[in-house]
Amino acid sequence: MLRRAKGAVLARAGLTVERVVEAAADLADEAGFDRVTVSAVARGFGVKDASLYSHIRSLQDLRERVAVRSAGELADRVGAALMGCSGRDALMAFADAYRTFALAHPGRYQAQQLAMAPGRWAELGGDLRGIEATYALLRGYGLTEPAVTDAARLLRSAFHGFVLVESHGGFLAARSPAQSWPEVVDALHRALSTWPAGA
């Protein structure tokens, strides 16, 4: 009887791996990725911490699952934005999708910075769509290895640095970040368009 009652509580709480990870991702956006704990997520469902451990192994497991889920969501946004685009338009679409996601979902974005072994990434169902989209964009500029990897690192550094400073209110000049953003992307476009052959 007790087991049946406990099952009813879990069913009402909607506890599945997917729901637990979604709740953790939402909490990350609301309170910060560092504030995601098993206890905090359990409270959101109105259950004890122990109830979550039939769906996740540990806090690290939960955070890794949030990272994978969030990376997939960003890849979806970027992929949709790139449809039918090429050249500078593709770069701007990619950049806008990246910045919009990072600013709208700060906790999810922070989760994606979590270091994880490639094997673990694959184990959790993570894919390489985000990387593939980046490399496809750069090949559109005529780049080949090792330039593609170097240019991908440039884009990631520029995009991540910009949104990190912007999200922390670090741009204090009268000119808004939104005004500077297309100029930054244009500068990256010029850099990619003139990347040294064979570099």
From TrEMBL:
PROSITE patterns the record matches: HTH_TETR_2
Pfam annotation, one family: TetR_C_33
Coiled-coil blocks: none
Record keywords, A-Z: DNA-binding, Transcription, Transcription regulation
Statement: the UniProt record of this protein carries the keyword Nucleotidyltransferase: no
Chain ranges of the HTH tetR-type domain: 14-74
Residues in the DNA-binding region annotation: 37-56
Protein name, as recorded: TetR-like C-terminal domain-containing protein
Protein species of origin: Yinghuangia aomiensis
